[in-house]
Design brief:
single chain, 486 residues, alpha+beta, 2-enoyl-CoA Hydratase, Chain A, domain 1, 7-stranded antiparallel beta sheet, 7-stranded mixed beta sheet, 10 helices, 22% strand, globular
Amino acid sequence: MLKNYYPSCLAISVSMLALSACGTSMQARPVADLPPGVAGIWKSNGYGYVLDATEEYPRLFHHTLEFCVEDTDTAALLSYYLTPDNLAYDSEGRAIYFSPTLEDYKIELQSIPRRPQTCGLELASDPLTVFDSFASYMDTHYAFFDLYDVDWKKAAAASRQNISSKTTDGELADILAELIEPIQDAHLSLELKVKGKERVLNPGRSSVGNALRRIAERDGTSIKKLNNQMMQQYWMTDVKKDILNGDGKMMADDMIQFGIVSDNIGYIAIAAEAGYAGKGEYSEDADLAVLNETLDQAISTFNEASAKAVIIDLSVNFGGYDFISRAIAERFAVQPSLAYTKYAADSSNQTPYPISITPYAGSRYTGPVVLVTSNVTVSAGEMLTMALRTQPNVTHVGETTRGAHSDVLEKKLPNGWRLKLSNEVYHDHEGKFWEGRGIPPHVPMQIFKPDNPFEGHVEAILSIIDRIDKGEFSAPSSSKPHHRGK
């Protein structure tokens, strides 16, 4: 599932199990080219999809009790994932189950005799209809109102009083922004255009993001400029120059850096769990192939140096694919384990679905691992955090993660705006729920200075290196670590 991937889609959340269209130019495959058994009409259990595969091309609708909005972009993406490898069928033909490439978690599509009456009808795009569809999507699918202490029905009803047929797009955007502001969810956003200009409403901001915003207001500069400056400093100065001394290696389309620090300590920084092949979204196989090549070289570097420990730095990690997260964790795993569970809160089946990791069959590092996170570790970066924390050779150090775990469910509004929200519930291997709270480290440590996030990261990593050199963070004896695992 492609989750929160910084370089794509205007640096906001995207997801593939949630069928994020994100401006795709992909064309839908004809129904005749889809696998046997797909022809028919289907309604998803949760997620709010109605799929009509009875015509020449599949049609996809976003359905609630009050609304039904057709989405040709998402229909094209769904047809891409409807392949024999990604489908399963029940024995009576009453349901099909689909998943993205390299994932086994599946969405159930139940056979229905006909489309809901509202699906396929022309829908108005006036301000009240747009608002009501937005409110309906949120009410039907959003999973965490209680977590953020929001009475959605009451808040939506109050906001609706401010809307009339004369409400402009800009005014409507402001009303929606105020409505969702209390929901500090990094996976909640609304992409829209006002007078031809793109705008993104996203109430969920990291502590670093909030600090940069305060600096921008103080200095009269743009938050976008400060964000770019910080990423440039973090990746090219902090990691490449100050930590790796210019001797590291940058691979995976510049998403991963690794090398040896302090003579015999391995270090790997991972900025995202996607984009490694440089081919954009929906290149899962290519991304995994590049990851494996990158990790082969990184693990070889660590093992040839007989590294006494490896630091996995996720201090700035924007997420990506869950299967990439698990593939990384498996290169440092010493035992099979449950990584996490998930279910859709808007589904009738809320049995937690277990997702596990198994030690990689090839080259891996099984000595002590120090995992470093911050409040900028988000989404699939948190799935990697969960997976690594199941291993006895891993010590989690740093700041609590962001707490945005659900895949992003995307919904099209009648006027073309796109809402993205959280509808899935994740628990870690111990059954603990960290959505909205973030995953707390075993060893708390400040990574970025609260008042100036341009400082702190290098000092924190150097402190960790020093503590490893002094014998801290060694693996428990029960893990029986060795450096050339298979």
